[in-house]
Amino acid sequence: MFVQWSPLYSVGIDELDDQHRQIIDMINLLHEALPKRDSAAEIRQVLVRLVEYTQKHFSAEERYLQQLHYPALETQREEHRELVRDLREILLRLKRGEDISVRKLLAFLKNWWITHIEREDLKYASWVRRHRSELSPRT
């Protein structure tokens, strides 16, 4: 396994934790596709799913944080926008037939997600615990 989920990454919202796990699973799928002979199409497919799912996750996360009036929400949004912009650029390069280093992409994704969860998402975990009663009943 290339990236391993850890309970230490839990933000205390089941939906968001599940989404983080799904994203890590997709990164692992990319890693598994790497040594395959005809991996380009599979890598493109997984990357498209990853971008779409990442956007879905960011929307959900931002919705929760907005409900809580989380003071660092704009910082989160900007980081989210930057990642989506970077991933879209990579997809565009793939569609144009440009070579990309999948190993560098994997290292980037692993680093970005783990760092983002540890440095940014876990900051709001304590905020969530203190303000959980303000969340909608779904949480």
Helix and strand pattern:
HHHH
| Terminus-to-terminus distance | 30 Å
Gross morphology: elongated
Integer count of domains: 1
**Arithmetic mean of pLDDT:** 90
Structural class: mainly alpha
Integer-rounded radius of gyration: 16 Å
As for the CATH topology, it is Four Helix Bundle (Hemerythrin (Met), subunit A)
A few lines on this structure:
With 139 residues, the chain is mainly α. The protein contains four helices and no strands.
Describe this structure in words.
- The chain contains four helices and no strands.
- The model has no long low-confidence stretch (mean pLDDT 90).
- With 139 residues, it is mainly α.
Defining traits:
139 residues; mainly alpha; Four Helix Bundle (Hemerythrin (Met), subunit A); 0% strand; elongated
Strand and helix map with partners:
Layout: H1 14-33, H2 39-67, H3 73-95, H4 102-131
Helix pairs in contact: 1-2, 1-4, 2-3
